[in-house]
Amino acid sequence: YPVGVQDEGNPTRSGAYYIATLTGSGLVQNNTLGRFMIQALLAGTVPVNLIEFTATKNGSQNILRWKTDNEINLDSYVIERSVDGRNFNSIGSVPANRSASINQYTFPDIFPVKGINYYRLRSVDQNRQFSLSAIRSIVQEKDNSMVIYPNPVKNSLYFTVPVVENEKAVIQIIAINGRIIKEVSVTLVIGSARQIIDIAGLSNGTYILKLILKDKILTNTFFK
């Protein structure tokens, strides 16, 4: 930042103000003028004016929309999600238009968790300052036909699902940001099919277990 500074050697000398650059130490450095004491209050940067932020359900997806203006110095929007309304994780980001006029954005959460999904926006400017939006929430109905345990889990995750005939299926482990961590093809046997998934190599965090059947997709959230 360019700031007005006063001569450290003679802070009372009239007119001893210069323009220099703010460093991480809290002082300013100028090759010609040397070190100075800051005598000016830096104006805080407001990253953006968030006019509107909504979250709506569209089938199995949740759609986030927001409207802004005054985002000249803005870098990006980070979309964050939580399952408890307190601990949030990033599920994606959108670059800012950096326009002073009205801007509109849309972000689909294609893998929402079953139950309550809490969302907020982190608006980040080019100086890495940020502001947080109000929290929005959407309920995705739970499908209790697939049971997973234990939860939280350490090494082996078990799940059962009712099967009316022998059926091929795909099991996916998905990170909170939508990235597929693991994918396994299995054959489910008629009855209450039980499967074991090795997750010992996963880092601690929140994950989604996705079971892809021929006529439906089941998901459930687990913690490690």
Structural class: mainly beta
Counting DSSP H or I runs of 4 or more residues, the number of helices is 0
How are helices and strands ordered from N to C? EEEEEEEEEEEEEEEEEEE
What's the shape?
Answer: elongated
Radius of gyration, in Å, reads: 26 Å
Q: Mean pLDDT, rounded to whole units? A: 79
User: What is the CA-CA span between the terminal residues?
Assistant: 43 Å
Strand count, sense and barrel status of the largest sheet are: 5 strands, antiparallel
Number of strands: 19
Percentage beta strand: over 45%
Please give a structural write-up:
The chain has strands at residues 2-7, 17-22, 28-30, 34-38, 49-58, 61-69, 74-82, 89-95, 103-109, 115-125, 130-132, 136-140, 147-149, 156-163, 167-175, 180-188, 191-198, 206-212, 217-223. By secondary structure, the chain is mainly β. The strands form five sheets. Strands 7, 8, 10, 11 and 12 form a five-stranded antiparallel β-sheet that branches. A four-stranded antiparallel beta barrel has the order 1-2-3-4. Strands 16-15-18-19 form a four-stranded antiparallel β-sheet, with no helix packed on it. Mean pLDDT is 79; it is low at 1-44.
What is the secondary structure topology, with strand pairs?
Layout: E1 2-7, E2 17-22, E3 28-30, E4 34-38, E5 49-58, E6 61-69, E7 74-82, E8 89-95, E9 103-109, E10 115-125, E11 130-132, E12 136-140, E13 147-149, E14 156-163, E15 167-175, E16 180-188, E17 191-198, E18 206-212, E19 217-223
Antiparallel strand pairs: 1-2, 1-4, 2-3, 3-4, 5-6, 6-9, 7-8, 7-10, 10-11, 10-12, 13-14, 14-17, 15-16, 15-18, 18-19
